[in-house]
Amino acid sequence: MHVHVADHPLVTHKLTVLRDRTTPSPTFRALASELVTLLAYEATRSVRTQTVRIETPVTSTEGLAIADPKPLVVPILRAGLGMLDGMVTLLPSAEVGFLGMVRNEETLQPSVYAERLPSDLSGRQCFVLDPMLATGGSLVAAIDYLFDRGATDVTAVCLIAAPEGVAAVEKATEGRAVTVVLGALDQGLDERGYIVPGLGDAGDRLYGTVPA
Ligand code: PRP
Ligand code: URA
Predict the structure, then answer these.
(1) pTM value surpassing 0.90
(2) Which of 79, 97, 110, 148 is the most exposed place for a label (fewest CB within 10 A)?
(3) Would you say 40 and 182 are in contact if contact means Cβ atoms under 8 Å apart?
């Protein structure tokens, strides 16, 4: 597994505002979107391309276009939805599939409650969006889902991760083409499985608290 942690003052600046408990939802949503666009630049470094020939007003030349089949972007509902606009801003030709997952806050085990993905992902590059990589349970389940359907490689874009979650994803995906692009790698998890210092519950901060 390849792990890339963004090392850029703009990313750290925007994450600092995102972490601040006084930042309201509208600002939080705008910043999450801006951060994804910054991380997407690194996440798409290995996006598959094909050579195309074009005519400029001056001459004929070769360039690159995103190859077929188009990449698939998969936001993990609910919080990953807050990252979708920022990602497709940079990759407008991508297709989008959806996976709804929720972590049981007592057992910390994830479960899938919604799914709208192509049944055959053969040859597809997939980009999973989820702001928080905590225990890693949700991301491991999402990656398994995509590889089981034939995806060739998966890149996860997360705003904040705990080392425990990164280690869990690395162990579970050994031998598979997986890349994780992070805005920050934090200290660890607290006794409730929350990332420290983290930003709290990403879904609640984006959309407000919804009782289970
Ligand atoms: C959050 C987050 C991840 C998951 C991370 O989602 O968006 O999907 O928890 O935790 P893990 O690494 O320990 O699995 P949550 O289950 O709270 O659902 P939500 O997006 O609907 O708020
Ligand atoms: N899910 C979140 O939204 N935040 C965390 O810190 C851990 C899991």
Answers:
(1) yes
(2) 148
(3) no
